[in-house]
Each structure stands twice: as C-alpha cells, then as structure tokens.
Amino acid sequence: xxxxxxxxxxxxxxxxALAATPAGAVHAHQLQAWQQQFQRLPLVEQQRxxxxxxxxxxLPPEQQQQLQRSFAGLDxxxxxxxxxxxxxxxxxxxxxxxxxxxxxxxxxxxxxxLHELDEAALERLVRLAQRTAPEQRQSLRxxxxxxxxxxxxxxxxxxxxx
Length: 162
What we know:
The protein is mainly α. It is built from 11 helices and no strands. Helices cover 77% and strands 0% of the residues.
C-alpha cells in the first residue's frame, strides 16, 4: 500500500489546484507542466490519482507527513518515474533502462504502448529490460513497436521465457 501512496504524492500540488486549494510553494510553470502530464495519463490513471488524493486527505496529519518524507527521500530517478502514473510509476525502476533514453519522437508512442500493456506483460517487459544489454535496447524497442498490439503479450511471454 505504501508504494501506491508514493505516486499520489507527486501529484499533490496538482491535486491541490484541482481541488481549488492554494498550491503553496509550487511555481505556476511547474504546476502547468504537471497538469499537462496529468491530462496525458489514461483516464483510469487520472481517476486512481483523484481517488488516492481523497483517501490521502482523510489520513491523520502525522501519516501524511510520514508519506511525504518517504517520497522526498526517494531519488529523483524514482520520483520522476511516478509522473507516468501510479501503474507505470510502480514499474519504472525496472523499465527505466529500456525506456529512459529514447528519441523524443518515440517517447509518446512508447508511453502509449506501455499504458496499453496489462500487468503480466509489464512484469515480463521489466524482466526483459533487466537482461537486455544497452546496445540491444533500441532493437528491442523497435521490435516491440513493430508488433500489432494484439501480439505484444504473447511476444513478451516468449521473449521473457515465461
């Protein structure tokens, strides 16, 4: 449950703004960037963030502060992964080697592909990413993109050996 809360902590400034609450020390340009990222998330992820925000608001202040400290204690690499939404943020440490350094023109397409994968396929992709050599990552991304969406799960099952 703790990791589920970490993702919502990234979105707290935006959640404050969405709830018409002052955003405090958040700069306007940062808030705008978060809002744009939020709007690019699948609707189900947006809803998960809204629901988690409502649950978070009901926690005792001490527990809220503890969660905020936990999130602040993460390195930027992990915090930035949560910008992909709660689902992908949870998998980001394993996916990062494969998707962190892609051409800007491929980023939106790859992100859409990741959001389309079910949980089992994401877990297989994490395993595959961990054992793919850096010089082979571009080829793996291209192969994954070339597949029709309906074939990706079985292809990942074959590639990951599961």
